[in-house]
Amino acid sequence: MAEIVVASGKGGVGKSTVSSSLSVLLKDKNIGIVDADAEAPNLHIIFDLNKWDEEIEYKNKSLAVIDYGKCDNCLKCEDACVYEAIYHNERVRIKEYLCEGCGACKVVCPRKAIEIKSGLLSGWIRISSTPYGPFVTSELDVGQPNSGKLVTEEKNIARGWIREGRAKNLIVDSAAGIGCQVIASMSGATHAILVAEPTESSLSDLSRAYNLAVHFRVKPYIVINKSNINPGFNGINVFARENGLEIIGEIPYDREVPRSMAYRRPLVIFSPKSISSRALMEISENVKKFLD
Amino acid sequence: MRIAVTGGKGGTGKSTVAINLAWELSKKFNVVLVDADVECPNDHILLSKKLENPREEYIFRPKFNYKKCIRCSLCVKNCSENAIVMFKEGYPFLMPTLCSGCKTCQLVCPSDAIEDDRKHIGNTYVTPVNERLTLVTGMLKEGEERSYPLVISTKKRANELNYDIIIYDTSAGTGNHVAAAIENAQLAVVVTEPTPLGLHDLKMILKLLEKEGKKGYAVINRYNIIDEMPELNGIEVLEKIPLSERVLESYIKGRPLSSIFPESEESRIFSEMANKLVELIWQK
Fold this sequence. Notes:
heterodimer, A: alpha/beta, Rossmann fold, Alpha-Beta Plaits, 2 domains, two-stranded antiparallel ribbon, 35% helix, 27% strand, B: alpha/beta, nine-stranded mixed β-sheet, 10 helices, 33% helix
């Protein structure tokens, strides 16, 4: 069993394109598909999914609520809030989207005017299936904390598929960045496909994502996307060589990629003979080697 | 004036818009550009600058003074992150990776047994770009889960500077770290691309802006990569930017468009965008 996380640090370098096409090409390997970007989930669009077999409400939000009957506007709560989620104009207010419900304000309130409500709705987990395998995605309600916990919930569902024999391998399409969602994606994964484009910014973000993979003992590989947009640049290759990383494929820039998105189809289905699809087929052959 | 540049989806061109906008505005105003994408900051690369003036940033972490501890377990019970566990003998013990630094344990402790310790979460930098433009960057420590506290530190560092205009360049996503980055802005420039993916995330970020009571103006980047523009559902469009050799070259060379292609259509777009934004804020 392999759990392959597709990450990059930098956004928009092609994680979802790679994840969706690999899911199609590796269908015979019993793939389960996880969209692990709860703050900007997109993979369901590529698979044109809009009906869910199951939608689970994620109730993990805690929130401070002020009883204005008791509050005397002493503002001690505002000072105590390290999240800067409390402010005042005429009276003290909680910014619901920033409050994590830690309870510091409740502790310092001399009038016992603050209660912490917990178990409030903060997102949704949605389960469906594609012709290529079972699919799970999630959506964090905007402005909320802890998207990583939501990703962990999704991965628990996907690991259930493996126990039940519905899937043998997982593809986890991670979020941009290196924060909690990416850490949740990497945690327990076996392999990481790090997607980069040949630019200095992508290289900088790649090295941060690579360090995370190493930290979580996930075996990293590199895919260079839009490989021909910056011919004078070989920074990704140098990085791969210096760190002993295998580059398992290079995908040239191809207008078929945004077109496939507009038509809501995985690239290798939409335009199987394109240069980018052919590159993805080669990549999938390389991935098969570490799936068995 | 306070402007946020955000977008939801990654790689739509937030940083490209932010640095070019900052560059144009710095021709008339003192500008601070805040790179609030603390997980993967890139603005300095797009401006060919090495980060300067590092400052280590910390959050609170509790340190237990076991001589004072009366083993009441109030800290354990009040930790919303379950970051404090109890030893067999009844003493508290911290699981540092779970701690969010909220200080509730210290506030609730009746015997003053919880002292201030601190945890390094990353660095902030202040880098002069030109005479009127300063870049403030947050860089999260690798392995640190929470980017939100460093976004706050980065904003604070920026606020120590003088400026006429401050621009907050956010990370991808729509969570609390983005909410914190756009919080102080008067309006938001929402950079998107004309694909269903870009528009899906655009809707999420507009929902966040609505929650924060702010208006967003869309910038459609690489509008020419798609033959037919998708429906924008009444979102106000500020500018459209083509995918062009010049935009790509400016990105790769790490130079704002108007500094290498001053007469180009693309640099005209950014200077127009800057003027429109100033006008929009004045109208307010």
